Amino acid sequence: MLYRFLFRVVFVRLNPEVAHELVAGAMKFLSAVGFLRAKKSETTKTVMGLEFANLLGMAAGFDKNGTLIRPLHALGFGHVEIGTVTPVSQPGNPKPRLFRLPKNKSLINRMGFNNDGAAAVAARVSSLRLKNQNLPIIGVNIGKNKNTSEENAAADYLEATRLLAPVADYLVINVSSPNTQGLRDLQRVSALRPVLEAVLTAAGKKPVLLKIAPDLEVEEILEILHLASGLELAGLVISNTTVSREGLVSEADTGEQGGLSGPPLAKRALETLILARATVPASMVLVSVGGLSDAADFRNRLALGADLVQGYTGFVYAGPLWARRLTKG
Ligand SMILES: Cc1cc2nc3c(=O)[nH]c(=O)nc-3n(C[C@H](O)[C@H](O)[C@H](O)COP(=O)(O)O)c2cc1C
Q1: What 3-state class would DSSP assign to 112?
Q2: Residue owning the nearest CA to atom 19 of ligand 1
Q3: Does residue 292's CB lie within 6 angstroms of at least one atom of ligand 1?
Q4: Which pLDDT belongs to residue 12?
Q5: Closest CA to 83 of 155, 7, 151, 180
């Protein structure tokens, strides 16, 4: 109730990125003063050999720099995927770069991998681990720097892996953000293979997953699934934001460029989940993300073969109790 009131009266009037920073600041403060504290979970579920308090995680992009891991855990997320982190820090695209479509409960973003860089984020997570026993599973989503060419992309992913694998529970290779020019070209099998191989060699025993775009043709998805199975990746994250504007209701497209997230993405994310489950070995972990709305949707994704589920936009619109509501029981 309070969140809905604040959202309507305060947040909607604020620039969305300023609102995000305010919420993040409040979460950090409440966590630091001990008001927002995660209880130790009594039951856990084992996925990829890791013990998750529950099967719901915060998707990449909400906590780009690993500063919100404890408050997100306290709000009920069993894992937090931080990042995307690039080897070198970068400012991202010019603002404004985040837009709300409230009637669709959706967002459009073209953040462009604004982040503190791999060394700084690795140091932060390492220090967090030293100081805390009770942490969620921490995934680290990695990408290439804006100015790195396609030929040098594998070296960027290798460098990010070298720095971040030691502090991560699992790694996610992001080649699917629409906001770094040319990034999605890395999803072509010929360009993708050297990236995956580079990360796998540097990741040691840490599970490595690949996050794909929802805008691929079925043939392209199948090629990627076969490559991922052949290289024995731990899993796939399905999917990132979409450049399509299909499925928007009762509100004209804003005309803003970027990736659309929220309910219009759900259909495509679920279709791809079903295709992947029917194609890859049962041992390969599938993480369903895109338009996650409520507890029934959460259960449905697990029933369709997802091993883990993530959300971002649903949390922004529903508020701080969302993760607890979804994972209750
Ligand atoms: C503002 C914003 C920033 C995002 N940044 C990243 C990112 O850095 N890396 C990434 O892999 N996905 C990023 N995403 C995509 C989300 O992780 C997720 O795949 C997508 O939003 C679909 O889930 P949702 O509909 O529950 O939001 C971002 C999404 C939003 C809304």
Answers
A1: coil
A2: 240
A3: yes
A4: 75
A5: 180
Q: Which ligand 1 atom sits nearest the alpha carbon of residue 81?
A: 17
Convert the pLDDT of each residue in 158-178 to its tens digit: 999 999 999 999 999 999 999
Q: How confident is the model at residue 144 (pLDDT cuts 50, 70, 90)?
A: very high
Question: What CATH superfamily classification does 2-327 receive?
Answer: Aldolase class I (3.20.20.70)
Q: Is the CB of 72 under 6 A from ligand 1?
A: no
Cβ neighbours around 40 below 10 Å, total = 7
List, by residue number, the catalytic residues. Answer: 177
Omega of the bond prior to 239 within 30 degrees of 0, cis? yes
Using a 6 Å cutoff on CB, does residue 241 contact ligand 1? yes
Handedness of CA 315, 66, 188, 223 (dihedral sign): negative
Answer whether 326 contacts ligand 1 (Cβ < 6 A).
no
Q: What is the pTM of this model?
A: 0.97
What distance in angstroms lies between residue 58's CA and the mean position of ligand 1's atoms?
Answer: 9
